[in-house]
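Q: Could you fold this chain for me?
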Amino acid sequence: MKYRRVGKSGLKISEISLGAWLTFGRSVEEKDSEKIIHTAIAGGVNFIDIADVYAKGRAEEVVGKSIKSLKRSDIVLSSKVFWPMSENINDRGLSRKHIMESIDKTLGRIGTDYLDIYFCHRPDPETEIEETVRAMGDLIQRGKILYWGTSVWEPQQIDRAVAAAKEYNAYAPIVEQPRYNMLDQHIEPHVLSACKRHGLGLTVWSPLAEGVLTGKYNEKVPAGTRGAESEWMKADLGQNNIAKVKKLASIAQSLGITMSQLALAWILRREEISCAIVGASKEVQLEENLQATDVRLPEEALTQIAAII
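A: Sure. Below is the predicted structure, expressed as structure tokens.
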């Protein structure tokens, strides 16, 4: 496994990392989740990404139980705050009240004293960024989190957060977590530019477009799969995208790698990216993805890929 700095911070994480979205506490049994997490750690993964909203807190609980036997300082652990966790009008958003109450609930579910990174899961149009920045800074001062970051924020919002941190002598975010893959390149160039300008790393999610970039949907969408049941995936499963994936698969085959490894290596070609966050419902899927850390795509292949996507 190779490791990268998170932006200009001194924190280093595995360039292939493990995420809990749609898997832990939900579609994957707890005993299988523990096996997947321990397989990841054995393969060099040191960053595990969660959120309070994943399976309404169950993902945090499952990860917490799974890492109980491991040395906490060996793991970089993140969670997120923003989405509603109950019907309570204040149990949502990025207000000081919600942030301060949510961190204690998250730490309790995981069973840890601190998070390495706490993400603002979306921007909050109803809360001034200054309030959020100062609340995050206070959590760092209290030792409940070590760093904080943003997720799916626009460049101007990142700019304002960094400016507010400077104005109030608070801690600025060190990382942004956007969606990024071969079929969704919307962060180029503006989000990437903002992160580079301010020294933020990027921990990108959905690097395989929820499985579309594995090639498993190239011929048909099997019944019972996420692609058959998820409204979220309809756009990614358009015929234009499937045609692209089929062409990309031939490049992967010529290089002697899998389609998943091609997609991950393509993301990691950019030095601005700190890691690609993968999910896994089976150990064999994870083991295949971890091998992408050793893949470096030749210029000819990158040119062919660019022409396709």
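A (continued): Residues 3-209+268-295 form a domain with the TIM Barrel fold (CATH 3.20.20.100).
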